[in-house]
Each structure stands twice: as C-alpha cells, then as structure tokens.
Amino acid sequence: MNYRHAFHAGNVADVLKHVVLLAVIDHLQRKPTPWFALDSHAGRGSYRLSNPGKPSEADDGIRRLRQRPPSDPLLANYLAAVARHDRDTQGADGEHYPGSPSLIADRLGPDDRLACCEIQTEEADALSQRFARDRRVGVHRRDGYGAIKALLPPRLGERRFARGLVLIDPPYETRDEEFDVALPALADGLRRWPQGVFMLWYPIKLASTLTRQYRRMAALPAASALRIELCVRPADSPLRLNGSGLVVCNPPWGLDTALATALPELATRLDQGKGNWRLDWLIAERT
Asked: What is the pTM of this model?
C-alpha cells in the first residue's frame, strides 16, 4: 500500500467526512449511556498542513471553508473542532489538522471507548504515541476489515455496548476492488452489531462507475441507509477526485434534516465550478 493521507489531509473529502462524523457523534452524546467507536483505517490521527512554497489540497477544503464564519451549526461545530485540535497540537512546525481518531477521541466520555486500526507501521506508531496515556483508546496494528469481524459486537469486560459507530474509510487505491472488500465487510458488521451506526466513505471521480455500487449499498442488511455526497466539480473525469460520498447505515434520527441545511452551504463555499450535492435514502427509514 502506497497511500499516505498526509498528502490529502484537510481536503474537500475530509471536510465532508468529518462534518458528518461529528454530527453522528453529537447525536450519540445526547444520551448518558456509554458508546463505542471503531475506526477501521485510522491513519496517524494528526497531520501537519503547512508546507511553505507548495500547494496543499487543504487550500480547497478546510482553509477555504474557514475564510469566513459559516452560518450552519454543523459547519461551525466542525471548524471549532479543527481549531481546538490545532491549538492543542500546535508547535513550531505549523498548522495541524485532526484525523478521525482525534475527532472521535476528543468527544469520548470516561466510559466511552474507541478502537483504532492501522496497518502501516509508521502511521500506527504515531497513533500509538498520540494515545499512549488515554485508556479509552485502543490502537490495533491490524487490517481494519478483519477488525470488524474480531471486535464486533463491542464489549468492555462483561458489558456489551448497545450504541456506537463504525467508520470505514479505506484508501481506494484500486476503486472497484476496494468496494469488493469494503461492502461485504460492512454487511458483516451490520449483522454482528445491527444497532450500530456504520459509515462508509467513497471517492467520486466518474459518476457513472458508481451505479453498480449504489445497487449493492441498497441491498445492505441495514434498517436504513442515507447517501450523502458532495462534488466540487462535475463528476466526469476518472483522473481526479471530483467529490466524495458517505453511505450511513442506521443513521441517528434527524441527521438527514441537519445535513439538509449544512450541505447547500458547504457546496456553495467549496464549489470549484458546477459542483453539486446529494442527500437521499438508499434504504428508506422504516417507521
């Protein structure tokens, strides 16, 4: 595997993914019972953005978004989380952006737990060092797909967690082949922990190639599945990342309503020419 997320940290895909992630966590925090999170492809947890003299994908993502304060509360919440991480991490070497493990860990209560999986040695070492003193966070140097089978349903001693989330965020170095692994793993996770919220991120380059994957997502064994997409350019080229999406299985109640106001503003702020957004149900909620 050659993928290193440091080259892409803070880009438009990260913005969408992390806005949605924090919105899901906020719903989990509304109840006092403990919750569990599994991050299947965790990375190193924090990334330095500043690189003088070189363009950064963050220029079109997090940096563009924070040029002026957003009006939507989900976007404001996201920017506040990024700013807090930067203040906590800041040294003399520049600006820092949080990976998903840091965003999740920052919101853990004393009885909540986070399991982070990372197979790349250098990234796993950095992640282990970051959370070395946090007993709520476990770092597993292993394949994230295998962890879905091994760690779900989640337990702490004799107690089983009834609530929580699983974030599946693979690199998609080979797009179709990654879906062929990610979607069966997601289905297996849903069968093992049917009450969990499952989030699968995916890139959007050429939109027509995703038709088959949408059909497969719609067949997942979930009570409901919400599709969330943001493209900053027309999805008509396989040579560049034009946008990204998330399928959220078993989303918390009200997530679609909150995103219905956040996505239009986000699309307007990050648009690079004829972009668009989508929010719909691949599996309709059962009432």
From this structure: 0.94
151 vs 28, 46, 112, 142, 144, CA distance in Å? 20, 24, 15, 12, 10
Residue recorded with tokens 């149900």: 281
Cα 8 to Cα 11, 14, 58, 266: the distances in Å are 6, 8, 7, 18
The residue type found at 276 is N
Do 176 and 202 touch, CB atoms closer than 8 A? no
| For range 54-82, the mean pLDDT | 91
DSSP state of 251: P
Q: What angle do CA 169, 174, 177 make, to 5 degrees?
A: 85
Residue-wise pLDDT for 203-228, tens only, equals 999 998 999 999 999 999 999 999 99
User: 154 preceded by cis ω (within 30°)?
Assistant: no
Contact present, 225 and 279 (Cβ < 8 Å): no
- Coil, helix or strand at residue 20: helix
47: phi then psi, degrees, rounded to nearest 5: -135, 135
Q: How far apart are CA 220 and CA 283, in angstroms?
A: 8
33 DSSP β-pair partners: none
Distance CA 23, CA 28 (A): 9
Neighbours of 167 (CB within 10 A): 26
Whether residue 98 contacts residue 83, with contact meaning beta carbons closer than 8 Å, is answered with no
Residues with active-site annotation? 169
Q: How far apart are CA 177 and CA 172, in angstroms?
A: 8
What does the CA dihedral 68, 73, 77, 82 come to, rounded to 10 degrees?
-30
pLDDT (0 to 100) of residue 2: 47
The mean of the pLDDT values for the chain is 91
Beta bridge partners of 280: 227
